[in-house]
Amino acid sequence: MKELVIVSGKGGTGKTTLAASFAALSNDKVMADCDVDAADLHLLLKPNILKTEKFISSQVAVIDQESCLACDICRNVCRFDAISEDYVVNPMDCEGCRFCERMCPIEAIHMEKQENGRWHIAETEFGPMVFAQLGVAEENSGQLVSLVRKEAQKLAKENNLNYIIIDGPPGVGCPVNSAITGAQLAVIVTEPTMSGIHDLMRILELTRQFRVPALVIVNKFDLNLENTKEIKSYCQKQQVEVVGEIPFDPGVIEALKAGEILVRFSGDGKVSEIVADIWKRVFNRLQLI
Amino acid sequence: MNIAVSAAGDSLDDQVDGRFGRCPFFVFVESESMAYKAVPNPGAGAMGGAATKAAQVLAESNVDIVLTGSVGPNAERSLNALGVEVVTDASGTTVREAVSNFLDKK
């Protein structure tokens, strides 16, 4: 079983747009949306949810109102101003550090696990899919990413599927580490802007750290030919293959607005062909690993 | 020498888990006697910063080498600062095999 992870460094470069098209162009795979902070692959793949589970991870403090002495120690030690004047912990502010629990002289404070989000197993037109959504104001989590990947691996085994395509999170933080580690191939989607270039360098460093080979796609390449040239020259020096260049096309936005997958959108011609071509190359590289 | 292996279970015959930060256990093996002890990895249940929590467990246990599959950048830096050597080609075997493969190479 091989895992392909789509990452970017900079956000907004087109990972999910491409991931959805790759889903439509490929067989024999499970789709996993690991951008749990801002999951949107399901908006394009339109999954039929088969199972939903709670994701329970963080903890918040709860004060036993009956025993509370109103001594104010907890309020004084809390670094997050999470405890009200009448000694009620606000779960939105509480960071779960447990300092109050430790300092309460009569042990009137205990921790309760919180539901931070939900994850789903679903069926789509293109095969099984696993995705997750964190709750409002919940912190992004490498643990949830890890869970989504494990479930995708289970599904692949159960259904005898040989590939997993992971729509990864943006950036280079812990959730991205969790999405990249152990994958066989990374596709880095970048764009020809200064932050696009800078963040391409950072994400490439990360894929190197995890020893995952990377391919680069330059999206909207014709918006700045100078920067595209710089990206290509950088990739060449780093011995990283640029596996495709996609021109900017308002048709892509029209497809997204219609909630349609690019390569299936009747309004678009040229960019669809380019994306289909890119997928052939990516899949070919994936098979060679 | 004291070797730590990132593992899917708590014995020498369990599979190596290639993920340093989120493996369920670390199995500590003394290479001469093959005496071992398994410790649950606090990073496994962590929301974030898993690998640094895992590195902390190793820091507290006087280990010379860790055998694993892949390590994040912050964790690697921490382990290097602690003087723990990191070997990242241990996937796909049991803990026992990973240790003996490593010792054979030396």
Report on the structure:
The complex is a heterodimer of chains A (about 290) and B (about 110). By secondary structure, chain A is α/β, with parallel strands linked by helices. Chain A contains ten helices and nine strands. Chain A has two domains: about 1-45 and about 125-289, P-loop containing nucleotide triphosphate hydrolases (Rossmann fold), CATH 3.40.50.300; about 60-115, Alpha-Beta Plaits (2-Layer Sandwich), CATH 3.30.70. In chain A, about 35% of the residues lie in helices and about 25% in strands. Chain A is elongated and about 70 Å long. Chain B has one domain (about 1-105): Dinitrogenase iron-molybdenum cofactor biosynthesis domain (Nucleotidyltransferase, domain 5), CATH 3.30.420.130. Chain B has helices at about 50-60, 75-80, 95-105; strands spanning about 1-5, 25-30, 35-40, 65, 85. Chain B has a five-stranded mixed sheet. The relative contact order of chain B is 0.25. The mean pLDDT of chain B is about 90. The interface of A and B includes residues 142 and 175 of A.
- How many domains of chain A? The number is 2
Order of helices and strands of chain B: EEEHEHEH
Quantity of strands of chain B, as a count: 5
Please trace the helix and strand order of chain A, writing H or E for each element: EHEHEHHEEHEHEHEHEHH
Based on secondary structure, the structural category of chain A is alpha/beta
CATH superfamily of chain B: Dinitrogenase iron-molybdenum cofactor biosynthesis domain
| Highest-level CATH class of the largest domain in chain A | Alpha Beta
What is the mean pLDDT of chain A? Answer: 95
Number of helices of chain B: 3
Sheet with the most strands of chain B? 5 strands, mixed
Alpha-carbon Rg of chain A, integer? 22 Å
**CA radius of gyration of chain B:** 12 Å
Q: What's the multimeric state?
A: heterodimer
